[in-house]
TrEMBL record:
<comment type="function">
    <text>Part of the ABC transporter complex MalEFGK involved in maltose/maltodextrin import. Probably responsible for the translocation of the substrate across the membrane.</text>
</comment>
<dbReference type="GO" id="GO:1990060">
    <property type="term" value="C:maltose transport complex"/>
</dbReference>
<feature type="transmembrane region" description="Helical">
    <location>
        <begin position="432"/>
        <end position="454"/>
    </location>
</feature>
<keyword id="KW-0472">Membrane</keyword>
<keyword id="KW-0813">Transport</keyword>
<dbReference type="GO" id="GO:0042956">
    <property type="term" value="P:maltodextrin transmembrane transport"/>
</dbReference>
<dbReference type="InterPro" id="IPR035906">
    <property type="entry name" value="MetI-like_sf"/>
</dbReference>
<feature type="transmembrane region" description="Helical">
    <location>
        <begin position="55"/>
        <end position="72"/>
    </location>
</feature>
<feature type="domain" description="ABC transmembrane type-1">
    <location>
        <begin position="229"/>
        <end position="453"/>
    </location>
</feature>
<feature type="transmembrane region" description="Helical">
    <location>
        <begin position="294"/>
        <end position="311"/>
    </location>
</feature>
<feature type="transmembrane region" description="Helical">
    <location>
        <begin position="21"/>
        <end position="43"/>
    </location>
</feature>
<feature type="transmembrane region" description="Helical">
    <location>
        <begin position="84"/>
        <end position="109"/>
    </location>
</feature>
<dbReference type="Pfam" id="PF00528">
    <property type="entry name" value="BPD_transp_1"/>
</dbReference>
<feature type="transmembrane region" description="Helical">
    <location>
        <begin position="267"/>
        <end position="288"/>
    </location>
</feature>
<dbReference type="InterPro" id="IPR000515">
    <property type="entry name" value="MetI-like"/>
</dbReference>
<dbReference type="InterPro" id="IPR035277">
    <property type="entry name" value="MalF_N"/>
</dbReference>
<keyword id="KW-0812">Transmembrane</keyword>
Length: 465
């Protein structure tokens, strides 16, 4: 006689080691993926039933799906409860890190721009009439072929999208085209009953263009990419050298315990870092004004001709380095003082007994012991200034203009501001696809420079120990 063994109870003990971590992440990813899929399907069905449904319903349905699926997941895997605390972190990582990266890479190979935005083309609207069976749309003012108007991939325009409007043109209605001939378009399904068609237009489609954006960037590299990249490297390297030298010298001077009033000096020198950058930079814009700025007024009293600080390409770059020095040296000074506090005073006392001068103590004790502390600070500072968009945008906005350069890549533009100008400030023709391609190039350049910096600093060798 055979007896059936009772079903084995599901364990509440999570799998151990790397396998357990990967399995938990896989289950959580599947849970979120299923929630998003269900939310998208429900939002799509709602949009078909209620055309004016708000877009945020996707988030609402996704959240509701997550609340329903989470208990079911717990019943199947009781131990997963210990990992549910990761859900918020994973959601934020996916929403604010993974998704933007995926979209940026995707857009880099498209023609996405202010013109090709996937929205109805308001400039191409044509007077339209609808047939009695609501399946045929005639454009009375159309010039040229239907294929050119809808930018169809085939002669019949099958599958293309048109947008219909009523007299007020308040709500767009998207319809699919079955075929087109002349100025007449046959729809795959009757137009909605609740719209009296008065106008029609096309969709500015987003389409894939392969490597066309990268070809455009490298095709005009001498007018944008190479000069902007060179200035970006010079700007980041010069800033970190000047700021670190100034911070190191001031930090060593102010760490001297025999200096009277050193706390007062520290507080005063710390103020540039405490004041918000927006305020500081705007102050320097006024100070560097060629006609009315106090800097040129003071130089005029000394008989020096007014300097075009922000109006000349070379002087504008010098101005950026000076202002960035003002903003950055307090951080380096504070880091130096903090690092000096970790050095044993007995070393200096022993050196002084041996007859070492103050300079010999600095070069033989202070600087070698500060190397380990300053190496990551210098590397991170270089990476930060390589993409330091704020100082460029606030002080010069990338200008002044320079002959032979692209309008989006002027004399003081760095790679990041060049991408920003391409995406948002290109005279209404925002080229988001080209800006995404620039962002990918920035990523690989930053990655390469970081690897070189880490290798030169011996970071990889330290990690192997």
């Amino acid at each position: 006689m055979t007896t059936l063994s009772p079903p084995r109870a599901r364990t509440t003990v999570p799998p151990q080691g790397t396998r357990g971590i990967l399995l938990a992440l896989l289950i959580l990813a599947a849970l979120m993926g299923a929630s998003v899929l269900i939310g998208w399907l429900l939002a799509t069905l709602t949009a078909q039933v209620v055309p004016g449904a708000p877009a945020y319903l996707l988030l609402v349905f996704t959240l509701l799906s997550l609340l329903v699926l989470a208990p079911l997941t717990h019943r199947a895997f009781p131990w997963i409860t210990n990992w549910f605390y990761l859900l918020p972190a994973l959601v934020f990582i996916l929403a604010f890190t993974v998704l933007p990266v995926v979209l940026t890479v995707n857009y880099a190979f498209t023609n996405y721009s202010g013109q090709n935005s996937g929205n109805p083309d308001s400039a191409a609207r044509q007077p339209a009439t609808l047939s009695a069976d609501r399946r045929t749309v005639t454009l009375s003012g159309l010039e040229g072929s239907a294929r050119d108007y809808l930018t169809c991939r085939n002669d019949t325009c099958a599958g293309a999208t048109m947008v219909l409007y009523d007299e007020d043109a308040s709500v767009p209605y998207r319809v699919k085209v079955a075929s087109a001939q002349g100025n007449t378009f046959t729809l795959t399904a009757p137009a909605p009953q609740n719209v009296e068609v008065a106008q029609a237009t096309r969709i500015n489609k987003i389409s894939y263009v392969g490597l066309a954006n990268f070809q455009e960037i490298f095709g005009k590299a001498s007018r944008a990419l190479w000069p902007v990249f060179l200035w970006t490297v010079i700007f980041a390297f010069s800033t970190i050298v000047l700021n670190s030298l100034a911070g190191l010298i001031l930090g060593i001077l102010l760490y001297n315990k025999r200096l009277k009033g050193r706390n007062v000096y520290r507080t005063l020198l710390f103020l540039p870092w405490a004041i918000p950058t927006v305020i500081s930079v705007q102050m320097w814009v006024a100070l560097f004004n060629q006609q009315f700025g106090i800097v040129n007024k003071t130089l005029g009293l000394l008989g020096i001709v007014a300097i075009p600080w922000l109006n000349d390409p070379l002087w504008a770059k010098i101005s950026i380095l000076l202002v960035n020095l003002w903003l950055g040296f307090p951080y380096m000074m504070t880091a130096t003082i903090s690092a000096l506090s970790t050095i044993n005073d007995d070393l200096y006392e022993a050196a002084e007994i041996d007859g070492a001068s103050r300079w010999q103590q600095i070069t033989g004790i202070t600087l070698p012991l500060l190397r380990n502390s300053f190496t990551p600070i210098l590397l991170s500072g270089f990476a930060f200034n390589f993409n330091n968009f704020g100082i460029i945008y606030l002080l010069t906005a990338g200008g002044p203009a320079q002959e032979g350069r692209e309008s989006t890549a002027q004399s003081t533009d760095i790679l990041l501001s060049w991408g920003y100008n391409t995406a948002f400030v290109s005279a209404g023709g925002q080229n988001f696809a080209l800006a995404s391609a620039i962002a990918l190039i920035i990523f690989f350049l930053t990655l390469a420079i970081s690897i070189v910096n880490f290798k030169a600093a011996g970071v990889f060798e330290e990690a192997r120990k």
